[in-house]
């Protein structure tokens, strides 16, 4: 079957692009901090370097301008003359004085004299501006580095979902696993069925979302994700798959979006991992191979069998039939 457009990719990326925002694009500037955090790393680094470079050059030019207007550059080597900033002879020396002041290096060779009120005002302005720029950009980089997106890459989902019987009931199942030894605290899983439908009033809904029950009433959606778990959705009269049979599965068109959320134990930040299953990734009459085995004093997980399934006898009829 030809691969069709997905709403959510297997890696969790949502295939949605926002266009024709018009005047609404100004909302991104009103929330500039979040906009910078959401940018890709290459743009973040470019903005980081450009902001500091431009700020340094502008402030160094202001110090050089004060020395030029006061005539300090011509009389800087005169020992009897009191300049605004001692030992500032040209633009490079003004730039070095700004860097020493901004970075609080303080070599002591260049310093402000008390006969320069404009220099004192500029020094105060430089201190305030530097604190604001440092707090904004360094805070942005810190938040971006500490985002738990990479943690989601160590949460695994089976490549396919299966439909078979469990405890005498027809169930839709898929597998999740955690590759790290650190746990996901308060892990919870949810499933959404994305399918187009038409209402009785004639309205067409191209991406209608329907909730799939994976144990809300019994608490089975709250996961203790120490070892791989098989998530089960019971197909009953309340399920959207009540009329689904093995034959009708071939002609259906739907997408199951799986959302796994939890708190990263090491950082305390909320992490979300996503994947999806289209109708051609749902295997009728299959079951997952076991991956747990008891070793000498511990349980061993064999992730080479994580995605493996095998066929089991399953009635080809829907629950309704």
SSE layout and pairing:
Layout: H1 26-30, H2 32-38, H3 41-70, H4 91-102, H5 117-145, H6 149-152, E1 155-157, E2 161-166, E3 169-178, E4 184-198, E5 204-212, E6 222-223, E7 229-234, H7 246-249, E8 255-264, E9 270-278, E10 282-284, E11 286-288, E12 292-294, E13 299-301, E14 309-311
Parallel strand pairs: 2-10
Antiparallel strand pairs: 1-3, 2-3, 3-7, 4-5, 4-6, 4-8, 8-9, 11-14, 12-13
Essential attributes:
alpha+beta; Helix Hairpins; 2 domains; 321 residues; Immunoglobulin-like; single chain; five-stranded mixed beta sheet; five-stranded antiparallel beta sheet; 14 strands
Q: Give the count of structural domains.
A: 2
Q: Strand tally, please?
A: 14
Helix content: 25-40%
**CATH architecture verdict of the largest domain:** Sandwich
Shape: elongated
Biggest sheet record = 5 strands, mixed
């Amino acid at each position: 079957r030809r691969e069709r457009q997905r709403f959510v990719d297997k890696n969790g990326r949502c295939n949605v692009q926002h266009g024709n925002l018009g005047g609404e694009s100004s909302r991104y500037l009103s929330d500039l901090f979040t906009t910078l955090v959401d940018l890709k790393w290459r743009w973040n680094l470019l903005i980081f370097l450009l902001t500091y470079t431009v700020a340094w050059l502008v402030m160094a030019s202001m110090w050089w301008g004060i020395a030029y207007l006061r005539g300090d550059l011509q009389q800087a080597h005169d020992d009897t003359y009191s300049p605004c900033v001692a030992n500032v002879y040209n633009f490079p020396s003004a730039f070095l004085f700004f860097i020493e002041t901004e970075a609080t290096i303080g070599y002591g060779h260049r310093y402000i004299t008390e006969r320069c009120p404009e220099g004192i005002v500029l020094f105060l302005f430089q201190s305030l501006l530097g604190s604001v720029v440092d707090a904004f950009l360094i805070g942005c980089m810190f938040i971006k580095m500490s985002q738990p997106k990479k943690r989601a890459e160590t949460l695994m989902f089976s490549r396919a979902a299966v439909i078979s019987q469990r405890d005498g009931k027809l169930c839709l199942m898929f597998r999740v696993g955690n590759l790290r030894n650190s746990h996901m605290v308060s892990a919870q899983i949810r499933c959404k069925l994305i399918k187009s439908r038409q209402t009785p009033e004639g309205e067409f809904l191209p991406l209608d979302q329907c909730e799939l029950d994976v144990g809300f009433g019994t608490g089975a959606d709250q996961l203790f994700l120490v070892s791989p778990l098989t998530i089960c959705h019971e197909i009953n009269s309340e399920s959207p798959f009540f009329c689904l049979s093995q034959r009708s599965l071939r002609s259906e068109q739907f997408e199951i979006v799986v959302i796994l959320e939890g708190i990263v134990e090491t950082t305390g930040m909320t992490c979300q991992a996503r994947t999806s299953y289209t109708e051609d990734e749902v295997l009728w009459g299959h079951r997952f191979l076991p991956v747990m085995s008891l070793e000498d004093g511990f349980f061993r997980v064999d992730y080479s069998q994580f995605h493996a399934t095998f066929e089991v006898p399953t009635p080809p009829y829907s629950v309704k039939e």
